[in-house]
Amino acid sequence: MGGYIWYSTGSDVSGPKLAGSLNFSHGKKTPKLKEVNILVGWGCKGESRERYDPEAIKAAVADGHLRVINYPAAISAARNKLGMLSQLSEAGITVPGMVDIRHQTAGTTVEHLINMVDNGTLALPCVGFNEFHKGKPVFCWTKEDLEQVVEINKIRKKDAVKIHYFRSLLQGTEYRIHVFRDEALCAETKVLSKDPVEATAKSLFSRLTKRAKKDDKKLNATERELRWVVDELVSDMLRGPSHLQKSVQYGWELNPVDMGTLPAPVISAAINALDAVGLDMGAVSVVHEENSAVVTNIISAPGLDDAQLEFYTEAIKDFAGSENSEKKEKEAGEEVADDASKEIIAKLTRKVRLGKLSQEKAEEILKALE
């Protein structure tokens, strides 16, 4: 038996990559629990798969047959971004100011939003999202923008993607912290690497050409003509607040950052946020603004570069190996260290393997803990 990486369509690139590094089997289908002893939920959509039985997973864990990293139920809950942010807020974790409009009547939504702006709950500019972040976000710079968005939202057809909540835009330094259980593995920060107009024009042009091919239509314009129109349109778009969204579409990218330079509240917020939503690992987006760490998102199956892949691989190996070590110790009749000691040893070992800590320093720490 071995491990299984369970992913969905959105994570079917990083999922196999992680599985290959761990020498685990992988797929989108529900695994046969009798054939695996380590189940890694990597953005999987268990609720939509045949044979998915959360109670059977819990029973296998209780019997000691299976160990799970990221339960599918927790992944599904975190996919609802509005629900996730609400859950974090209830747990005492700082999230952006936001207003849920799902249960507001069409006639009271605008008044409710304006009141929230006036009392400081929602700061302008803000952005409107679908609760599952389907479709494109809508940016609002003024109260009048909010009124227009609500009116458009009201007349959209029943099956159309609708806006369910508005969230304040934050302009502090944005980090993505990769967390495994109660340890921050590595981190990235968002930086503006390209001209926003040029980046947005390229993105929009790409989407237009892909859409034309998908609809089996021909564009009645040359590439040069279409590029000119796109450039003009993008320039117009960026006069509003949309460029404030730190997106790859607008020229932003994630760059590695030294963990030692991160503000302590950012790391604490990331670890606490992951724990609050019941996940064991993932990437947590945190904005450091006015000495406050604000959690904006959690991704249970982040994209991984080679360095990040190594961190996740070693963390999962240590987690999987600790059970095997425990069984061997029991069979030999040796005393078994408690879980806390194992976690510390695993972390120190991982840091040594990745060159983050010298062997001498690790031994010094262990000796001090005896």
Give a short overview.
This protein is α+β, with helices and mostly antiparallel strands. It has helices spanning 14-22, 54-62, 72-79, 81-90, 109-118, 143-155, 196-214, 223-237, 264-276, 306-331, 339-353, 359-369, and strands at 2-7, 25-27, 36-42, 67-69, 98-100, 126-129, 138-140, 165-168, 173-180, 183-192, 252-257, 281-289, 292-299. The longest helix has 26 residues, at 306-331.
Can you put this structure into words, describing what you see?
The chain is built from twelve helices and 13 strands. The chain is α+β, with helices and mostly antiparallel strands. The strands form three sheets. It has a five-stranded antiparallel β-sheet, with helices on both faces. It has a four-stranded parallel β-sheet with strand order 2-1-3-4, with helices on both faces. α7 packs across α8 (223-237) and α10 (306-331) packs across α11. The longest helix is centred in the C-terminal third of the chain and has 26 residues, at 306-331. The radius of gyration is 23 Å and the shape is globular. It starts with a strand and ends with a helix. Residues 324-337 have low confidence and may be disordered.
